[in-house]
Amino acid sequence: MVKELEKVDVVTIGAGWTGGIVAAETAKAGLKVKSLERGGYRDTNDYQRVHDELKYAQRYELMQDTSVETLTFRNKRDERALPVRRLGSFLPGNGRGGAGTHWNGQTDRYMAYDFEIKSMTEKKYGKDKLGEDSGLRYRDWGITFDEMEKYYDKFEKTAGVSGEENPLGEKRSSPYPNPPMIKTKSLKLFEEAAKKLELHPVMMPSANMSQNYTNPDGEKLNQCQYCAFCERFACEYDAKATPDVTVLRTAEKTGNYEIRYNSNVTEIVTDEKDKNKVTGVKFIDTETREEYFQPADVVVLTSFLFNNYKLLRVSEIGEQYDPETETGTLGSNYCYQTGLGATGFFDEQYNTFMGAGALGMILDDFNGDNFDHEDLDFIHGGSIHFTQTGLRPILNNKVREGTPAWGEEFKKESVENFTRTLEVYSMAHTGPHRDHYLDLDDTYKDAYDNPQVMLTYNWTEQDNARNKYLTEKCAEIVEKMGAKHIDVQNGDLGDYDIVPYQSTNISGGTPMGTDPKNSVVNTWLQHWDRDNLFVAGSSTFVHNSGNNPTGTVGAFAYRCAEGIIKYHKDNQRLED
Protein backbone atom coordinates (compact mmCIF):
# COMPACT_ATOMS: atom_id res chain seq x y z
CA MET A 1 0.00 0.00 0.00
CA VAL A 2 1.34 3.44 -0.96
CA LYS A 3 1.85 5.74 2.03
CA GLU A 4 1.02 9.40 1.44
CA LEU A 5 3.29 12.01 3.02
CA GLU A 6 2.59 15.58 4.05
CA LYS A 7 2.29 17.93 1.09
CA VAL A 8 5.08 20.41 0.27
CA ASP A 9 5.23 23.45 -1.98
CA VAL A 10 8.08 22.13 -4.13
CA VAL A 11 9.63 18.69 -4.57
CA THR A 12 12.86 18.20 -6.54
CA ILE A 13 13.93 14.85 -7.92
CA GLY A 14 17.60 14.75 -6.98
CA ALA A 15 19.86 16.86 -4.79
CA GLY A 16 22.68 17.88 -7.12
CA TRP A 17 23.46 21.26 -8.69
CA THR A 18 20.05 21.81 -10.28
CA GLY A 19 18.05 20.41 -7.36
CA GLY A 20 20.19 22.34 -4.90
CA ILE A 21 19.88 25.67 -6.72
CA VAL A 22 16.10 25.31 -7.09
CA ALA A 23 15.82 24.26 -3.43
CA ALA A 24 17.97 27.12 -2.12
CA GLU A 25 16.19 29.83 -4.10
CA THR A 26 12.65 28.61 -3.44
CA ALA A 27 13.35 27.90 0.24
CA LYS A 28 14.81 31.40 0.65
CA ALA A 29 11.56 32.69 -0.86
CA GLY A 30 9.63 31.00 1.95
CA LEU A 31 8.40 27.87 0.14
CA LYS A 32 8.50 24.46 1.81
CA VAL A 33 10.81 22.28 -0.26
CA LYS A 34 11.81 18.62 -0.23
CA SER A 35 14.39 16.81 -2.37
CA LEU A 36 14.09 13.09 -3.04
CA GLU A 37 17.61 11.73 -3.46
CA ARG A 38 18.07 8.07 -4.43
CA GLY A 39 21.53 7.93 -2.85
CA GLY A 40 22.61 8.45 0.73
CA TYR A 41 23.98 11.25 2.90
CA ARG A 42 27.64 12.20 2.78
CA ASP A 43 29.73 15.26 3.57
CA THR A 44 33.32 16.49 3.67
CA ASN A 45 34.15 14.32 6.67
CA ASP A 46 33.65 11.22 4.53
CA TYR A 47 36.51 12.20 2.21
CA GLN A 48 39.28 13.02 4.67
CA ARG A 49 42.61 11.55 3.51
CA VAL A 50 40.92 9.11 1.12
CA HIS A 51 43.19 9.48 -1.92
CA ASP A 52 42.05 6.18 -3.41
CA GLU A 53 42.21 6.10 -7.20
CA LEU A 54 41.00 2.51 -7.39
CA LYS A 55 37.93 3.13 -5.22
CA TYR A 56 36.75 6.38 -6.78
CA ALA A 57 38.23 6.65 -10.28
CA GLN A 58 38.04 2.99 -11.24
CA ARG A 59 35.24 1.48 -9.16
CA TYR A 60 33.01 4.57 -9.24
CA GLU A 61 32.21 4.89 -5.55
CA LEU A 62 30.27 8.14 -6.14
CA MET A 63 28.46 6.99 -9.27
CA GLN A 64 25.17 5.35 -10.16
CA ASP A 65 24.95 1.59 -9.51
CA THR A 66 24.42 0.03 -12.95
CA SER A 67 23.25 -3.26 -11.41
CA VAL A 68 20.16 -1.37 -10.20
CA GLU A 69 19.56 0.98 -13.12
CA THR A 70 21.43 1.57 -16.35
CA LEU A 71 20.66 2.10 -20.03
CA THR A 72 20.90 0.06 -23.21
CA PHE A 73 22.83 1.24 -26.24
CA ARG A 74 23.06 0.77 -30.00
CA ASN A 75 24.68 2.73 -32.85
CA LYS A 76 21.81 2.33 -35.32
CA ARG A 77 18.06 1.83 -35.28
CA ASP A 78 18.27 -1.63 -36.90
CA GLU A 79 20.66 -2.95 -34.23
CA ARG A 80 19.80 -4.68 -30.98
CA ALA A 81 20.51 -2.51 -27.93
CA LEU A 82 22.39 -4.12 -25.04
CA PRO A 83 22.73 -3.06 -21.38
CA VAL A 84 25.68 -0.92 -20.30
CA ARG A 85 27.27 -2.39 -17.19
CA ARG A 86 30.45 -0.31 -17.13
CA LEU A 87 30.00 3.46 -17.23
CA GLY A 88 32.35 5.26 -19.59
CA SER A 89 30.89 8.10 -21.63
CA PHE A 90 29.06 9.64 -18.70
CA LEU A 91 29.29 9.42 -14.93
CA PRO A 92 25.94 10.08 -13.21
CA GLY A 93 26.30 10.72 -9.51
CA ASN A 94 24.53 9.09 -6.61
CA GLY A 95 23.94 10.60 -3.18
CA ARG A 96 24.07 14.07 -1.68
CA GLY A 97 25.44 16.52 -4.25
CA GLY A 98 24.94 14.14 -7.19
CA ALA A 99 27.41 14.38 -10.06
CA GLY A 100 28.23 17.89 -8.84
CA THR A 101 30.28 16.28 -6.06
CA HIS A 102 32.78 14.64 -8.39
CA TRP A 103 32.99 17.19 -11.20
CA ASN A 104 36.22 18.91 -12.26
CA GLY A 105 35.02 22.47 -11.76
CA GLN A 106 35.35 23.76 -15.35
CA THR A 107 32.77 26.57 -15.49
CA ASP A 108 32.48 28.01 -18.98
CA ARG A 109 29.69 30.04 -20.47
CA TYR A 110 28.06 29.08 -23.76
CA MET A 111 28.44 31.54 -26.64
CA ALA A 112 25.77 33.80 -28.12
CA TYR A 113 26.13 31.62 -31.22
CA ASP A 114 24.99 28.57 -29.26
CA PHE A 115 21.67 30.11 -28.32
CA GLU A 116 20.94 31.34 -31.85
CA ILE A 117 22.81 28.73 -33.88
CA LYS A 118 20.21 28.17 -36.59
CA SER A 119 19.46 31.78 -37.43
CA MET A 120 23.11 32.88 -37.23
CA THR A 121 24.35 29.98 -39.36
CA GLU A 122 21.68 30.37 -42.03
CA LYS A 123 22.16 34.13 -42.19
CA LYS A 124 25.90 33.80 -42.79
CA TYR A 125 26.21 30.53 -44.76
CA GLY A 126 22.75 29.66 -46.08
CA LYS A 127 20.20 27.01 -45.09
CA ASP A 128 22.15 24.06 -46.53
CA LYS A 129 25.04 24.53 -44.11
CA LEU A 130 23.29 22.80 -41.21
CA GLY A 131 23.21 19.44 -42.99
CA GLU A 132 20.34 17.32 -44.26
CA ASP A 133 19.90 15.00 -41.28
CA SER A 134 20.45 17.69 -38.66
CA GLY A 135 18.71 20.63 -40.29
CA LEU A 136 15.25 19.81 -38.97
CA ARG A 137 16.52 19.45 -35.42
CA TYR A 138 18.91 22.42 -35.21
CA ARG A 139 17.07 25.51 -34.00
CA ASP A 140 17.48 28.55 -31.81
CA TRP A 141 16.87 27.94 -28.12
CA GLY A 142 14.24 30.68 -27.74
CA ILE A 143 16.39 32.72 -25.39
CA THR A 144 19.55 34.74 -26.03
CA PHE A 145 22.88 34.95 -24.27
CA ASP A 146 22.13 38.51 -23.19
CA GLU A 147 18.98 37.30 -21.43
CA MET A 148 20.96 34.51 -19.72
CA GLU A 149 23.96 36.61 -18.64
CA LYS A 150 22.56 37.58 -15.23
CA TYR A 151 21.96 33.94 -14.37
CA TYR A 152 25.51 33.01 -15.41
CA ASP A 153 26.76 35.80 -13.18
CA LYS A 154 24.73 34.54 -10.23
CA PHE A 155 25.94 30.96 -10.59
CA GLU A 156 29.58 32.03 -10.88
CA LYS A 157 29.30 34.04 -7.66
CA THR A 158 27.64 31.14 -5.85
CA ALA A 159 30.41 28.82 -7.03
CA GLY A 160 33.23 31.33 -6.46
CA VAL A 161 34.59 30.83 -9.96
CA SER A 162 38.25 31.72 -10.44
CA GLY A 163 39.00 33.19 -13.86
CA GLU A 164 40.08 36.03 -16.10
CA GLU A 165 38.54 38.01 -18.95
CA ASN A 166 38.37 36.11 -22.25
CA PRO A 167 39.02 38.43 -25.24
CA LEU A 168 36.86 36.13 -27.39
CA GLY A 169 34.11 35.77 -24.79
CA GLU A 170 30.77 37.55 -24.54
CA LYS A 171 30.41 40.77 -22.55
CA ARG A 172 30.29 40.27 -18.77
CA SER A 173 28.27 42.28 -16.27
CA SER A 174 30.95 41.82 -13.60
CA PRO A 175 34.41 40.24 -13.24
CA TYR A 176 34.92 36.70 -11.98
CA PRO A 177 34.54 36.63 -8.19
CA ASN A 178 38.03 35.16 -7.73
CA PRO A 179 41.33 35.67 -9.58
CA PRO A 180 42.60 32.83 -11.79
CA MET A 181 44.42 29.81 -10.40
CA ILE A 182 48.21 29.55 -10.43
CA LYS A 183 49.93 29.35 -13.80
CA THR A 184 52.29 26.39 -13.67
CA LYS A 185 55.40 25.77 -15.73
CA SER A 186 53.55 23.58 -18.25
CA LEU A 187 50.69 26.10 -18.57
CA LYS A 188 53.19 28.84 -19.33
CA LEU A 189 54.71 26.64 -22.03
CA PHE A 190 51.26 26.16 -23.62
CA GLU A 191 50.46 29.87 -23.33
CA GLU A 192 53.70 30.91 -25.01
CA ALA A 193 53.21 28.42 -27.87
CA ALA A 194 49.56 29.45 -28.44
CA LYS A 195 50.46 33.13 -28.54
CA LYS A 196 53.22 32.46 -31.08
CA LEU A 197 50.44 31.04 -33.27
CA GLU A 198 48.48 34.28 -32.68
CA LEU A 199 45.83 32.52 -30.58
CA HIS A 200 44.13 33.81 -27.42
CA PRO A 201 44.71 31.52 -24.42
CA VAL A 202 43.27 32.45 -21.02
CA MET A 203 43.18 30.72 -17.66
CA MET A 204 40.26 28.32 -17.48
CA PRO A 205 37.22 29.45 -15.44
CA SER A 206 37.49 27.23 -12.38
CA ALA A 207 35.23 26.33 -9.48
CA ASN A 208 38.40 25.26 -7.66
CA MET A 209 39.17 28.17 -5.35
CA SER A 210 42.25 30.27 -6.07
CA GLN A 211 41.84 31.80 -2.59
CA ASN A 212 39.53 31.55 0.42
CA TYR A 213 36.08 32.75 -0.57
CA THR A 214 32.68 33.46 0.98
CA ASN A 215 29.80 33.41 -1.50
CA PRO A 216 26.74 35.74 -1.43
CA ASP A 217 24.80 33.18 0.65
CA GLY A 218 27.54 33.14 3.29
CA GLU A 219 28.97 29.71 2.40
CA LYS A 220 32.74 29.50 2.93
CA LEU A 221 35.09 27.79 0.50
CA ASN A 222 38.79 27.22 1.06
CA GLN A 223 41.81 27.72 -1.16
CA CYS A 224 42.68 24.78 -3.43
CA GLN A 225 45.59 22.57 -2.34
CA TYR A 226 46.29 21.21 -5.86
CA CYS A 227 46.19 17.65 -4.56
CA ALA A 228 45.23 16.08 -7.95
CA PHE A 229 42.14 14.30 -6.58
CA CYS A 230 39.34 16.33 -8.16
CA GLU A 231 37.45 14.72 -11.01
CA ARG A 232 35.71 11.49 -9.93
CA PHE A 233 36.52 12.51 -6.35
CA ALA A 234 34.89 14.71 -3.74
CA CYS A 235 37.01 17.48 -2.23
CA GLU A 236 38.33 16.92 1.28
CA TYR A 237 39.21 20.62 1.71
CA ASP A 238 35.90 22.28 0.72
CA ALA A 239 37.99 23.96 -1.97
CA LYS A 240 35.84 22.89 -4.92
CA ALA A 241 32.38 24.40 -5.30
CA THR A 242 29.95 21.50 -5.09
CA PRO A 243 26.23 21.45 -4.24
CA ASP A 244 26.81 19.88 -0.83
CA VAL A 245 29.04 22.75 0.38
CA THR A 246 27.12 25.60 -1.27
CA VAL A 247 23.45 25.55 -2.27
CA LEU A 248 22.36 22.54 -0.19
CA ARG A 249 23.78 24.13 2.95
CA THR A 250 22.07 27.39 2.02
CA ALA A 251 18.73 25.66 1.57
CA GLU A 252 19.02 23.78 4.87
CA LYS A 253 19.81 26.97 6.79
CA THR A 254 16.41 28.42 5.86
CA GLY A 255 14.53 25.81 7.88
CA ASN A 256 12.26 25.30 4.86
CA TYR A 257 14.17 22.42 3.29
CA GLU A 258 14.54 18.70 3.77
CA ILE A 259 16.35 15.98 1.83
CA ARG A 260 14.93 12.49 2.00
CA TYR A 261 17.72 10.06 1.12
CA ASN A 262 17.52 6.54 -0.34
CA SER A 263 14.37 7.56 -2.21
CA ASN A 264 14.11 6.42 -5.83
CA VAL A 265 11.33 8.19 -7.72
CA THR A 266 9.44 5.90 -10.11
CA GLU A 267 6.49 7.97 -11.38
CA ILE A 268 5.12 11.50 -11.75
CA VAL A 269 1.40 11.46 -10.96
CA THR A 270 -0.97 13.48 -13.15
CA ASP A 271 -4.03 15.09 -11.54
CA GLU A 272 -7.08 13.01 -12.50
CA LYS A 273 -9.34 16.09 -12.42
CA ASP A 274 -6.99 18.51 -14.19
CA LYS A 275 -4.81 16.79 -16.80
CA ASN A 276 -2.74 19.97 -17.17
CA LYS A 277 -1.22 19.50 -13.72
CA VAL A 278 0.59 16.91 -11.61
CA THR A 279 -0.12 16.17 -7.96
CA GLY A 280 3.23 14.77 -6.88
CA VAL A 281 5.49 11.75 -7.31
CA LYS A 282 5.70 8.13 -6.23
CA PHE A 283 8.97 6.82 -4.85
CA ILE A 284 10.43 3.70 -3.28
CA ASP A 285 12.53 3.70 -0.12
CA THR A 286 15.56 1.74 -1.34
CA GLU A 287 16.29 0.41 2.16
CA THR A 288 12.81 -0.73 3.28
CA ARG A 289 11.28 -1.17 -0.22
CA GLU A 290 8.17 0.69 0.96
CA GLU A 291 6.37 2.84 -1.61
CA TYR A 292 5.38 6.43 -0.88
CA PHE A 293 3.49 9.26 -2.52
CA GLN A 294 4.89 12.76 -2.08
CA PRO A 295 2.27 15.42 -2.92
CA ALA A 296 3.53 18.84 -4.03
CA ASP A 297 2.29 22.04 -5.62
CA VAL A 298 5.28 22.00 -7.98
CA VAL A 299 7.37 19.03 -9.17
CA VAL A 300 10.87 19.68 -10.54
CA LEU A 301 12.91 17.03 -12.34
CA THR A 302 16.52 17.81 -11.42
CA SER A 303 18.17 14.43 -11.91
CA PHE A 304 20.67 13.18 -14.50
CA LEU A 305 19.65 13.52 -18.15
CA PHE A 306 18.52 9.91 -18.66
CA ASN A 307 16.38 9.91 -15.55
CA ASN A 308 14.68 13.21 -16.44
CA TYR A 309 13.65 11.66 -19.75
CA LYS A 310 12.70 8.33 -18.21
CA LEU A 311 10.39 9.75 -15.55
CA LEU A 312 8.46 11.70 -18.16
CA ARG A 313 8.20 8.70 -20.46
CA VAL A 314 7.09 6.09 -17.89
CA SER A 315 4.62 8.66 -16.52
CA GLU A 316 3.18 9.11 -20.04
CA ILE A 317 3.81 12.86 -20.10
CA GLY A 318 4.68 14.19 -23.55
CA GLU A 319 4.95 12.62 -27.00
CA GLN A 320 7.86 10.28 -27.75
CA TYR A 321 10.10 11.34 -30.64
CA ASP A 322 9.83 9.17 -33.79
CA PRO A 323 12.92 9.26 -36.04
CA GLU A 324 10.95 7.97 -39.03
CA THR A 325 8.53 10.89 -39.11
CA GLU A 326 10.57 13.31 -36.96
CA THR A 327 7.42 13.98 -34.98
CA GLY A 328 7.22 14.09 -31.19
CA THR A 329 9.76 15.77 -28.93
CA LEU A 330 10.46 13.61 -25.86
CA GLY A 331 13.79 11.86 -26.33
CA SER A 332 14.94 14.09 -29.19
CA ASN A 333 18.07 16.23 -29.63
CA TYR A 334 20.45 13.95 -27.75
CA CYS A 335 24.00 15.26 -28.18
CA TYR A 336 27.47 14.54 -26.85
CA GLN A 337 30.95 16.08 -26.88
CA THR A 338 34.22 14.72 -28.16
CA GLY A 339 37.60 15.19 -26.56
CA LEU A 340 40.38 14.45 -29.03
CA GLY A 341 43.79 16.04 -29.33
CA ALA A 342 47.52 15.56 -29.51
CA THR A 343 50.03 14.29 -26.93
CA GLY A 344 53.57 15.59 -26.86
CA PHE A 345 56.51 13.64 -25.42
CA PHE A 346 59.25 15.83 -23.92
CA ASP A 347 62.76 15.42 -22.52
CA GLU A 348 62.04 17.74 -19.61
CA GLN A 349 60.00 16.61 -16.61
CA TYR A 350 56.90 18.47 -15.35
CA ASN A 351 55.10 18.12 -12.02
CA THR A 352 52.04 16.69 -13.73
CA PHE A 353 51.25 14.45 -10.75
CA MET A 354 49.98 17.62 -9.05
CA GLY A 355 47.03 19.72 -10.16
CA ALA A 356 43.32 20.42 -9.85
CA GLY A 357 40.23 19.58 -11.85
CA ALA A 358 39.99 22.95 -13.59
CA LEU A 359 43.62 24.05 -13.47
CA GLY A 360 44.34 24.86 -17.08
CA MET A 361 44.19 27.22 -20.02
CA ILE A 362 41.58 27.43 -22.75
CA LEU A 363 41.23 29.19 -26.08
CA ASP A 364 38.10 29.82 -28.17
CA ASP A 365 39.72 30.72 -31.51
CA PHE A 366 38.17 27.61 -33.09
CA ASN A 367 34.95 27.54 -31.08
CA GLY A 368 31.46 28.44 -32.28
CA ASP A 369 31.67 30.67 -35.34
CA ASN A 370 34.86 32.45 -34.27
CA PHE A 371 36.49 31.23 -37.52
CA ASP A 372 35.27 31.03 -41.10
CA HIS A 373 33.32 27.87 -41.99
CA GLU A 374 32.59 28.75 -45.63
CA ASP A 375 34.84 26.03 -47.07
CA LEU A 376 34.49 23.57 -44.18
CA ASP A 377 32.21 20.53 -44.02
CA PHE A 378 30.91 21.29 -40.56
CA ILE A 379 29.50 24.04 -38.37
CA HIS A 380 30.55 25.12 -34.88
CA GLY A 381 33.85 23.85 -33.46
CA GLY A 382 35.29 23.47 -30.01
CA SER A 383 37.42 25.01 -27.31
CA ILE A 384 41.03 23.89 -27.07
CA HIS A 385 42.26 22.98 -23.60
CA PHE A 386 45.51 22.39 -21.83
CA THR A 387 44.95 21.21 -18.27
CA GLN A 388 47.02 20.03 -15.35
CA THR A 389 44.43 18.00 -13.46
CA GLY A 390 47.00 15.77 -11.78
CA LEU A 391 48.06 12.49 -13.39
CA ARG A 392 47.45 9.36 -11.34
CA PRO A 393 49.17 6.07 -12.24
CA ILE A 394 46.19 3.81 -12.99
CA LEU A 395 44.31 5.92 -15.52
CA ASN A 396 47.32 7.84 -16.86
CA ASN A 397 49.99 5.69 -18.43
CA LYS A 398 51.15 7.35 -21.64
CA VAL A 399 53.39 5.51 -24.09
CA ARG A 400 54.14 6.36 -27.69
CA GLU A 401 51.99 4.84 -30.41
CA GLY A 402 53.39 1.50 -31.53
CA THR A 403 54.71 0.58 -28.08
CA PRO A 404 53.78 -3.01 -27.05
CA ALA A 405 50.91 -3.14 -24.54
CA TRP A 406 53.01 -5.12 -22.03
CA GLY A 407 56.54 -6.28 -21.39
CA GLU A 408 59.94 -4.67 -20.84
CA GLU A 409 59.59 -1.97 -23.51
CA PHE A 410 56.16 -0.96 -22.21
CA LYS A 411 57.45 -0.67 -18.63
CA LYS A 412 60.44 1.42 -19.70
CA GLU A 413 58.29 3.79 -21.80
CA SER A 414 55.66 4.04 -19.05
CA VAL A 415 58.12 5.02 -16.33
CA GLU A 416 60.07 7.36 -18.62
CA ASN A 417 57.02 9.24 -19.89
CA PHE A 418 54.91 9.54 -16.72
CA THR A 419 55.97 13.16 -16.08
CA ARG A 420 57.18 13.92 -19.61
CA THR A 421 53.92 13.97 -21.59
CA LEU A 422 51.65 16.98 -22.13
CA GLU A 423 48.31 16.78 -23.94
CA VAL A 424 46.45 19.52 -25.79
CA TYR A 425 42.88 18.52 -26.58
CA SER A 426 39.64 19.92 -27.91
CA MET A 427 36.18 19.89 -26.37
CA ALA A 428 34.04 19.74 -29.48
CA HIS A 429 30.40 20.47 -30.21
CA THR A 430 28.06 17.82 -31.56
CA GLY A 431 24.68 18.68 -33.04
CA PRO A 432 21.24 17.09 -33.11
CA HIS A 433 20.53 14.40 -35.68
CA ARG A 434 17.38 12.56 -36.65
CA ASP A 435 18.87 9.21 -35.53
CA HIS A 436 20.26 10.38 -32.18
CA TYR A 437 17.57 9.95 -29.54
CA LEU A 438 16.35 8.29 -26.35
CA ASP A 439 13.58 5.69 -26.10
CA LEU A 440 12.55 2.94 -23.71
CA ASP A 441 13.82 -0.61 -24.11
CA ASP A 442 11.18 -3.32 -24.55
CA THR A 443 13.47 -6.06 -23.23
CA TYR A 444 15.42 -4.82 -20.23
CA LYS A 445 14.03 -3.42 -16.96
CA ASP A 446 15.54 -1.79 -13.88
CA ALA A 447 15.31 -3.07 -10.32
CA TYR A 448 11.98 -1.26 -9.88
CA ASP A 449 10.36 -2.96 -12.89
CA ASN A 450 10.50 0.10 -15.12
CA PRO A 451 12.00 -0.21 -18.64
CA GLN A 452 15.60 0.86 -19.08
CA VAL A 453 16.37 3.90 -21.22
CA MET A 454 17.62 2.98 -24.73
CA LEU A 455 20.16 5.27 -26.41
CA THR A 456 20.68 5.31 -30.19
CA TYR A 457 23.78 7.29 -31.14
CA ASN A 458 26.69 7.36 -33.57
CA TRP A 459 29.24 9.83 -34.91
CA THR A 460 28.41 11.76 -38.07
CA GLU A 461 30.47 12.96 -41.02
CA GLN A 462 30.31 16.47 -39.53
CA ASP A 463 31.72 15.13 -36.26
CA ASN A 464 34.63 13.48 -38.07
CA ALA A 465 35.39 16.60 -40.12
CA ARG A 466 35.19 18.85 -37.06
CA ASN A 467 37.45 16.61 -35.00
CA LYS A 468 40.03 16.23 -37.77
CA TYR A 469 40.21 20.02 -38.03
CA LEU A 470 40.53 20.52 -34.26
CA THR A 471 43.09 17.77 -33.65
CA GLU A 472 45.32 19.30 -36.32
CA LYS A 473 45.13 22.62 -34.47
CA CYS A 474 46.03 20.84 -31.22
CA ALA A 475 49.03 19.21 -32.90
CA GLU A 476 50.25 22.59 -34.17
CA ILE A 477 50.30 23.92 -30.61
CA VAL A 478 52.08 20.82 -29.23
CA GLU A 479 54.71 21.14 -31.96
CA LYS A 480 55.22 24.79 -31.08
CA MET A 481 55.64 23.73 -27.43
CA GLY A 482 58.76 21.82 -28.50
CA ALA A 483 57.73 18.18 -28.17
CA LYS A 484 60.29 15.64 -29.42
CA HIS A 485 57.50 13.26 -30.48
CA ILE A 486 53.78 13.86 -31.09
CA ASP A 487 50.92 11.37 -31.22
CA VAL A 488 47.79 12.80 -32.85
CA GLN A 489 44.42 11.16 -32.32
CA ASN A 490 42.61 10.23 -35.52
CA GLY A 491 39.78 12.61 -36.37
CA ASP A 492 37.81 9.74 -37.95
CA LEU A 493 36.11 8.26 -34.92
CA GLY A 494 34.53 5.21 -36.54
CA ASP A 495 31.49 3.94 -34.64
CA TYR A 496 30.75 5.57 -31.29
CA ASP A 497 31.81 3.32 -28.41
CA ILE A 498 30.04 3.89 -25.11
CA VAL A 499 32.67 2.13 -22.96
CA PRO A 500 35.81 4.36 -23.09
CA TYR A 501 35.68 7.59 -21.13
CA GLN A 502 35.58 10.58 -23.48
CA SER A 503 33.45 13.17 -21.69
CA THR A 504 30.55 13.30 -19.26
CA ASN A 505 29.03 16.21 -21.14
CA ILE A 506 25.78 15.00 -22.67
CA SER A 507 22.64 16.96 -23.48
CA GLY A 508 19.11 16.72 -24.84
CA GLY A 509 16.14 14.41 -24.44
CA THR A 510 13.82 17.08 -23.02
CA PRO A 511 14.82 20.11 -25.15
CA MET A 512 13.57 23.64 -24.49
CA GLY A 513 11.99 26.04 -26.95
CA THR A 514 9.17 28.43 -27.67
CA ASP A 515 6.93 25.98 -29.55
CA PRO A 516 5.51 22.72 -28.08
CA LYS A 517 5.74 21.19 -31.56
CA ASN A 518 9.55 20.98 -31.31
CA SER A 519 10.31 21.20 -27.58
CA VAL A 520 9.39 19.58 -24.26
CA VAL A 521 9.69 22.63 -22.00
CA ASN A 522 9.61 26.40 -22.48
CA THR A 523 12.57 28.63 -21.70
CA TRP A 524 11.57 28.76 -18.03
CA LEU A 525 11.94 24.95 -18.18
CA GLN A 526 8.21 24.58 -17.53
CA HIS A 527 6.66 21.53 -19.22
CA TRP A 528 4.28 22.34 -22.06
CA ASP A 529 1.72 19.71 -20.99
CA ARG A 530 1.79 20.16 -17.19
CA ASP A 531 1.79 23.70 -15.80
CA ASN A 532 3.31 22.79 -12.41
CA LEU A 533 6.00 20.46 -13.75
CA PHE A 534 9.52 21.77 -14.45
CA VAL A 535 12.58 20.00 -15.89
CA ALA A 536 16.09 21.32 -15.19
CA GLY A 537 19.53 20.21 -16.36
CA SER A 538 21.38 19.58 -19.62
CA SER A 539 18.49 17.39 -20.82
CA THR A 540 16.79 20.70 -21.75
CA PHE A 541 19.60 21.84 -24.09
CA VAL A 542 18.83 21.95 -27.83
CA HIS A 543 22.39 20.90 -28.71
CA ASN A 544 25.78 20.71 -27.06
CA SER A 545 28.49 23.35 -27.20
CA GLY A 546 32.24 23.51 -27.46
CA ASN A 547 32.40 24.44 -23.76
CA ASN A 548 31.75 22.63 -20.51
CA PRO A 549 27.97 22.69 -19.82
CA THR A 550 27.91 23.01 -16.00
CA GLY A 551 27.89 26.81 -15.99
CA THR A 552 24.92 26.77 -18.36
CA VAL A 553 23.17 24.09 -16.28
CA GLY A 554 23.60 26.30 -13.21
CA ALA A 555 22.44 29.44 -15.01
CA PHE A 556 19.25 27.78 -16.25
CA ALA A 557 18.61 26.33 -12.78
CA TYR A 558 18.53 29.88 -11.42
CA ARG A 559 16.16 30.93 -14.18
CA CYS A 560 14.01 27.87 -13.47
CA ALA A 561 13.87 28.71 -9.75
CA GLU A 562 12.82 32.27 -10.58
CA GLY A 563 10.03 30.89 -12.75
CA ILE A 564 8.86 28.45 -10.07
CA ILE A 565 8.59 31.21 -7.47
CA LYS A 566 6.58 33.34 -9.88
CA TYR A 567 4.36 30.42 -10.90
CA HIS A 568 3.69 29.40 -7.29
CA LYS A 569 2.66 32.96 -6.48
CA ASP A 570 0.47 33.67 -9.54
CA ASN A 571 -0.63 30.11 -10.44
CA GLN A 572 -0.42 31.00 -14.14
CA ARG A 573 1.62 29.59 -17.00
CA LEU A 574 4.84 31.51 -17.56
CA GLU A 575 5.36 33.46 -20.74
CA ASP A 576 8.68 33.41 -22.61
From TrEMBL:
Keyword DNA-binding on entry: no
Keyword set includes Flavoprotein: yes
InterPro entries recorded: FAD/NAD-bd_sf (IPR036188), GMC_OxRdtase_N (IPR000172), GMC_OxRtase_C (IPR007867)
Residues annotated as domain Glucose-methanol-choline oxidoreductase N-terminal: 146-333
UniProt region (Disordered), positions on chain: 161-180
Domain Glucose-methanol-choline oxidoreductase C-terminal: 434-557
Homology family: Belongs to the GMC oxidoreductase family.
Name assigned to this protein: Gluconate 2-dehydrogenase flavoprotein
